[in-house]
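Task card 7
Instruction: Convert sequence to structure tokens.
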Amino acid sequence: MTLPQRLRDAQPTDAYSSPDRRGLRRIALRLTGRFLAGETEDRELVTTNVSCDGAYILSPVPAEPGEQLVCYFDQLGRVAAEVVWSGPDGFAVRFRTSPLKREKLAGRLNWLVNRDEPAPPEERTSIRQSAAGQTYVTLTDGTQLPCRQTDMSLTGAAFDALGAPPFVGDRVRTEYLPAEVVRVAGRSFAVRFLRGAEAAGS
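Output:
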């Protein structure tokens, strides 16, 4: 599905009526991604404003208050959400996250708004080295996805999938460490390695 032109060209705004004012301060920010409701196919989305507590999503597909969604934001990853109210061109959602996840969202949003600043520590990359070769990445359901590894660093790796790639935000296991998918482009995807408490929660 492709978003209508008027939604794809929409500019971020702070102006919307707010039955959802109980959340944290929202910032005008245009993020793209997809959302999934129940067993339906995923749909494209564009945000007009976001906080670590929720977002307003432009979408030609209506959603009803109380509906449970899984949102995949290209620059934030996967977030579970609940629709809290609907507008004429979209709907507002409240994120259903742990305190740790909310703190990470806040840090990432702060960096996205102030892009001249260094990225948060978990977003920084070490020097990557070419590491071409055939390997497997284990997906969340245990399926082994054949891939060609294209590079690797101390913090992550990149692959070309020989099948359907995982989604941004998915937890996977590489040959070396558990990891989280942070970028997908076509059949190519990149992961950051998980260590310590993050790895234990995978």
